[in-house]
Specification:
Length: about 375
Amino acid sequence: MHAGLLGIHRLDQARPLPAPRDLPADAPGGGASTLLQDDDLLLLSPRRSGLKAAERGGVIAAAWGTITGCLVPLPDGLRADDPRALLHLYAEHGEAFARQLNGHFVVLLRDRPRGLLLLIQDRFPGIATAYWLERDGLLLFSDRIEPLVRAYPDERRRIDRKALHQYLADTYLTAPATIYAGVRQLPCGEMLRVEAGGIERRVYDGWHRPARRQTDAKTALARYRGLLDDALGDWLARDPSCGFLLSGGLDSSVNVALAAGHGDRALPTFGIAATDFHTDAPYARRVAAAYGAIHTEKLVDGSRIDDLPRLAWELENPFFEPGMMLSWNALRLASEHVGSVVGGETADQLFGACAVPCWNRHRARRRLGPLLLPWLALVR
């Protein structure tokens, strides 16, 4: 995990941009390179991030995350993940150019002749994220919360109580909220549009339920399988040496089964077993054996509890997931062998495995809540 990039854009023309040397000693400026710098914009990037930028006609474009493809043809020799492709798409499609991109990314576009800055979040949650903070005539933005609160340490004390209430009720936060009142998260499919010192959030690609939904289960399943198979094939073509997280559950097992049909190499798979509680490790071994995968397994015995502070630091926002420590260990294991991994997420939610437990928890809250309220009031 990297320390996070930091961008600073001047909103108030009477206020100069800070120099990198004037940032706090532990801010990214201490261990980062200056990617962009002019009178109105400063972008500091960790040296190992690989972040690239391109400029043409006073327009600057940069992206972080992964751009996997483009929905419209690009000029010969231009890949979707080349920042020059962003300039081409902006010239062809205007401010909604990111609708033509697939992947998990955040795009920064600066149109100097128009005095316009766009910070664009992709349509898919949870991978690449844009956070921003408006303070003292400046707009600060980053792919992590940490650089923003390091630049303004007093922001750590400004807790968003509504966000805290949502976390305690639902165990997660939804954009644009973060745990800090001053730091906002850009929702999926939205852009932050900055012009003439004003900041506006604008939806550039909202998700809409299709008017004609597929109701035939057999047809829908075939289409889903085809889309998933195409996506796995595209990723394997981009990174033939990637690995697969394999827990033995529905989602990860389907990924391995479909990916085994692409190419003739044995897939590297990574899983977790435990000594004191049940996991699906036996099923993961059976899936790996069935598809000829090279399976590496880590035994979790509780000795890595010291990793918990680091895990909380990486999450930044409050987040609760019973299997998070297992996922953390699986990713650490995979990182020792491969540069990227494919994992399965949301299958439980999509296919109903969580429906019964969630309904049981809801019923328990309804039944036990009135009994617990007097006790909670007494404790408070």
